[in-house]
Protein: Hydroxysteroid 11-beta-dehydrogenase 1 isoform X1
Amino acid sequence: MGSVKGWICVVLVGILGYLYMESFDPESIANARVLVTGASTGIGEEIAYHYAKAGAQLVITARREQALQKVKAKCLELGAKNVSLIIADMGEPVDREQILEKAVTVLGGLDYLVLNHIGYTPFQMWEGDVSHARWLMEVCVQGRCKDFWLHRRRCILPHHSSLPQKCIFTGVS
Structure:
């Protein structure tokens, strides 16, 4: 008898979960102004393609221009309204400072900010060069959190329309 009640509870929770689940409407991001960092390969590239299919306006960033050019071409093919490139190294504080300013200028604001960049590490945990570990911290922590949020307070807030509706951090670092 107890197991029947358990199954009924599980089924009921499943049904309620399904009924309250928000459905995604691609139209909701048509014409959205999106900045995607680390967009030359992998997760960032795929995120850019999904926004492009929905008809978003994109600014994509990475260190490698040639790879970004390929992503840009495919995004335009998939239906992006426009795609701008910013060649930048998120390990460089100067580049991080300029990315948001350039994106806001190019797009006229910012609706979605996707922080996807990561630094490459050729060594295992607790092995390797300490200076490389510091660089990784600069890219993955400073570049994702501290600088963007400080920059948001200083520069983005005065442009009310440029305050991102959503800030997405990928969990790859």
